[in-house]
Amino acid sequence: MAVNVLFAARPDRWETYAAPLRDAFARAGVDAHLATDMPPAEVDYIVYAPNSPLQVFTPYTRAKAVLNLWAGVEDIIGNPTLAIPLARMVDPGLTRGMVEWVTGHVMRHHLGMDADITRSDTEWEPHTPPLAYERKVTILGLGALGRAAAETLVSLGFDVTGWSRTEKTLPGITCLSGEGGLDKALETAEILVLLLPNTADTENLLNAKRIGMLPRGAFIINPGRGALIDDEALLSALDEGHIAHATLDVFRTEPLPAEHRYWSHPRVTVTPHIAAETRANTASEAIAENIRRGEAGETFLHLADPSRGY
Ligand code: NAP
């Protein structure tokens, strides 16, 4: 018998996802009825975006899992009506997008590209950047995205340190964890990349004290979540020159309000939450695989843990 899969996202997403999901279900051998509307008590799986109108899960009495279309789950994981497993999105397409965005912005700062791109005079002033192996990059968060970005930076020769909640051993990466590990990870970070989730433990993680621990002239790149950074502390450190530049993709309020100082600050680059988008084709494969697993009685992949908040 077909499983009933409810697509609960913003209406404009349906056109993007309907065909890729149906194709992926067929390839995975999942017999599914996919629709944007069906009686809640008949739904088996919910493909979900946290900005969907669906916010109360109680009527979905038969549903086996919520399959999130986003990597970040902070807007759903604390939902008190959610009593079934929640899988976050781990999508190879999204991961590649993040790796490319991070690598591009690391290379910009590493090579000092701005000096040439923004040159307004005719001064012939050669500047030789260090080689990648002379550049220390720290990535906070070694999950699906942080780890992939770290691996690519290592493959380019960078001296990469990563920090996570639990201990890890990853080839070519100096892996640190815990409070002591964080201090060490910050003290050496010439370029700092934030790829942590937004949780109670990570909010304002990059506060004035920790920004002060970064080497003078460090670069901060944040494609994680806006709430990871104490914005006032960052602006002070930028004004004072302790931080050379911040490249920010995510913000506490999105879209970033027009009057926010980040827009006009000469040492800030704003990108409009475009670091990595879920890609319909590859994400549909991930969703189909989780439904296949659910129907085969196997454990779901990439389950979020409400007790950790991610
Ligand atoms: P993930 O696989 O869940 O990885 C999260 C990483 O953060 C893990 O290494 C985890 O440690 C670490 N972590 C979590 N809480 C921590 C804490 N309190 N202290 C130290 N480390 C902690 O997530 P992901 O798929 O890599 O995604 C990361 C984030 O990127 C998402 O949550 C989302 O906010 C953001 N994102 C942004 C965009 C964009 O376009 N800008 C797109 C997608 C995702 P353990 O390994 O020990 O669990």
Task: Walk me through the structure.
- This protein is of the alpha/beta class and 310 residues long.
- It folds into two domains: 108 residues, NAD(P)-binding Rossmann-like Domain (Rossmann fold, 3-Layer(aba) Sandwich); 178 residues, 3-Layer(aba) Sandwich (Rossmann fold), CATH 3.40.50.
- 32% of the residues lie in helices and 17% in strands.
- The protein is built from nine helices and twelve strands.
- The strands form two sheets. A seven-stranded parallel beta sheet has the order 8-7-6-9-10-11-12, sandwiched between helices.
- Strand 9, helix 6 and strand 10 form a beta-alpha-beta unit.
- It is elongated.
- It binds NADP nicotinamide-adenine-dinucleotide phosphate (NAP).
- NADP nicotinamide-adenine-dinucleotide phosphate (NAP) binds next to helix 4.
Give the count of helical stretches: 9
The order of strands across the largest sheet is 8-7-6-9-10-11-12
Q: What Rg do the Cα atoms give? A: 21 Å
The amount of beta strand, in percent, is 15-25%
CATH superfamily of the largest domain: NAD(P)-binding Rossmann-like Domain
* CATH class assignment of the largest domain: Alpha Beta
Oligomer: single chain
CATH topology of the largest domain: Rossmann fold
Q: What count of domains describes the coordinates?
A: 2
**N- to C-terminal distance:** 33 Å
Instruction: Please summarize the sheet with the most strands.
Output: 7 strands, parallel
Helix content: 25-40%
Return the average pLDDT rounded to an integer: 97
Ligand types? NADP nicotinamide-adenine-dinucleotide phosphate
Low-confidence stretches: none
Strand tally is: 12
- Secondary-structure-based class equals alpha/beta
Categorize the overall geometry: elongated
